[in-house]
Structure formats: C-alpha cells, structure tokens
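Sequence in, structure out. Go.
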Amino acid sequence: MASILRQLGQSSRRRILSSPRHHVARSWTPVRCQATVASGVADAPAVTATNRAEATLKRFWKTVSIEPRDEALAVTLDKRPLKTPSGNQLVFPKSRVVAATLVASEWENQETLLKQHSLPLTSLASRAIDSFGDETTRAEVRAQLLKYLETDTVCFHSDDPPGVVKLQQEHWDPILKWARETFEVEINTTDALFLVPHSPATIRKFDEVLATFDPWQMAAMERAVYASKSFLIGLALVMRHITVEQASQAAHVEVNSQIERWGEVEDTHDVDFQNIRQQLGSAACLLVTV
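Output:
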C-alpha cells in the first residue's frame, strides 16, 4: 500500500483531497436498447431486444441496416427500428450519417455473444436522445460538469519530478492557453495543495457555453469529461480544438509519468489508456457532421 501511495502524483493527491463527491451519471448499458418487433398495428407495444439480449447475451438478429425515417436515419435490426432505453427510436439527423453508420457497425460486428463494452456509440446516442431534450436534465448535467472545472486535472501542476513537469507543459499548458484566450476568462492553476476557486464570472461563462450545446454535443461533453476527469480537456475535444489522441494523452499525463519512472504494468496501464481512447473517440465520432 505504501508503494502505491508513493506512486501517486502530487497533483493526484491534491486533487483527491480537494475534489467534491461528484454525481455519477446513470450507466447507459448498450443491451438496454430495444428493437421493435414487426406488427400489423402502428406503434404497437414493443417486444424488445432488451429482454432477449439480457436473457441470453447472444446475437438474435441477422441483418443491420440504416433506413430513412421522416427526414432522419434509423438504425434497424432485421428491419425493426432500434430503440433507446426510454423507448425512443434511435434516429439520427441526416447530417450525422457518420454516427449512424458507426452505430450500425457496432451491432453488425457483434458475433455470437453480445459484448456490451463494444457498443459505446449506441449508448452515447441513446443518452443524447433520451436525456438532453429535457431542459431540467440539461441544467443538472451542466452543474455536475462544472464541478469538474472546480478541481480540473489540468489546473493542478507539480513542480517535481521533471518528467511530469515536462508532460504537463506539453499537454496541459496549450489547453489552458486556448481556453483563456477563446473564452476570455481567468483560469487559476496551482502547484500547492488546494486550488484557488475560479471566479463566478469564469464559472458563469462556461455554463453559458454549455447552454448553447445541442443534445449530441451535451452527450459527447458529458462522456468526455467523465472519461478524462477534466472539464477543460472535454471541452477542447468537443469544440474540436484537440484530437482524440491529444485528449487521451492529456488525460493520461500523470500515469505516463509513472510509467516513465517505474515502468508499465501490463494489462493495467495499457488497458486503461485504450479505454480512455475508446470513450473519447466515441464522443468525437458522435459530433462528426457532413
């Protein structure tokens, strides 16, 4: 245990001490998606894919398609519309054909057994459709995301060892510079134990930015912030200032520093990094428009 504590970066320890207990969003498990069984009655109660998938965790569909539905694109399993956990059809604006195609690909690539972790776009699109059309939910999520700004990873800097200082300067300083200049706000940083709170004007400005996001952007922002544990990394990704790889590296600065000093723990550090990349990648893909 002592060795583990020694390996924690200084900024990690400070952030743990100062962080509030954040809200954890409901887990959007992919198998909660539904597919309506064909019926002679329009809008008949759905016999859901959920029941069959949860009972067997086996693939039960033969074909996956993307079909036009009322000026939108619907993903279908055996011609039956895929539905979200709340029973809404999983449809995409035509401008988000890339996201629709990737969701269809997720389901097409399922083999004998249904692998929940391999459906990140499905769960993310469901979150956008089910939750972020509701203003109350949007306001609640904005408030939770802004808590991450109060203890943002990129605001806690270390002055030692040199390796982590270099990584922070390389990956965090450009994000801080971009945010300060783009939104014309003050963003406090520290190399001490606690961060000086950001000004109300700064918090208000970022809340106003989030308020302009559409449901797809809100869902992407929520996932990016939770995956990176940083409001500013998530915002830079959603606003396309940085790439998925840059966001992943920024979110992994302290772990990369530990790897440089003590080496990589196989099947731990590498798996964690790939999971971050998957989560941030799904957020970025949801936002691609044509």
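Check: The chain has a mean pLDDT of 82. The radius of gyration is 21 Å.
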